[in-house]
Amino acid sequence: MLPDVLKNDLNIVFCGTAIGNQSAANNAYYAHSGNKFWSILNQIDLTPTKVNPHDCKL
């Protein structure tokens, strides 16, 4: 199981469901190559560049 990533003064919180096998194996959220979570964050301008699963510090 992966830890929650919550800090003070957040502007947005994403609540997921069960951790997939690929995410658990890589110790990173939304790590499956087919998962579009990180790309969508960039497409809707929440991130200035495309973020990768391992860029998220747990």
Automatic annotation (TrEMBL):
Keyword DNA repair in annotation: yes
Coiled-coil boundaries: none
UniProt-listed Pfam families: UDG
UniProt key word DNA damage: yes
UniProt KW keywords: DNA damage, DNA repair, Hydrolase
Uracil-DNA glycosylase-like domain mapped to chain residues: 4-50
InterPro entries linked: MUG/TDG (IPR015637), Uracil-DNA_glycosylase-like (IPR005122), Uracil-DNA_glycosylase-like_sf (IPR036895)
Name of the protein this chain belongs to: Uracil-DNA glycosylase-like domain-containing protein
Organism encoding this protein: Desulfosporosinus nitroreducens
